[in-house]
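Quick check before the chapter quiz. The format below is the same one you will see on the exam, so make sure you can read both the input and the output lines.
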Amino acid sequence: MTSRSRQATRRVSLAQLSLRLGLITVLLLSLGGCAQIQSLFGEGDEDGQDVRLSAQTLAGKGIEELNKGNYYKARKAFDEILDYYPFSPEAMLAQLKGADSNYYMENYEEALVLYREFEERHPTNEAIPYVMYQVAMCYYQQIDRIDRDTSGADNAIKEFSKLLRAFPESPYSSEARARIRAANEFLVNHEYFVVEFYLRTEKYDQAQTRLQYLINTYPDATITPKARKLLQRLQAGDPPGFNLSSWFKDTLLPDWALFNSDEDEAATTPPSQKK
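Here is the expected output.
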């Protein structure tokens, strides 16, 4: 047999082998799915049996751990569903509860990704109002002291407002409105903090401009009456001197419940969703 003939024969043999492997794969998928293939390549216990938990078992385990407050274990179970059973009926639950697990672990960025993905993939799901509320809460929970970045408050207000426009009568509407008011209080206190900085550096014109902006933007804020009085003193050429500190105090995010007009709903809010 010539060299060219041997090469041709080898190509035919390889083609036949590929065809046979393809047929075996199809047969295994029809008989037992991916688990059979995993066993074929050694993914299982010592007896060659697949030991991976089913999606249903993992979902039950995840919910149980979540209810116990074992958020890390719960997230691990939900992640396994998403990794190994992404097209199973349990995958939707895993995505939502995996986001919840990250949220309760204060992994807000990770939770945001999962909530956003759920919202994009299941826009008509009945859980969407809850998902939108949780997206807003991920931003709200990142609000820090008044001398820090205000993007958390800005984004929280934006997302809560989006929820109220889309689902004005949802079970989360009252709490969303309360948290918008609380976040606005944070923003107005931030503006007042900037005023204090200008006064301490004797930049009175900038302080007046900032006070006027505060008054115009947040006319109903609790600190606005004091801001008006301070502006009047500055306009009269009488800035506070040695008693400057009495006009200001360290302010953190106001308690959202103080702005909630629905006392019954506030009382029934799960503690894990309060800050």
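If your answer matched, good. The longest helix spans residues 3-32.
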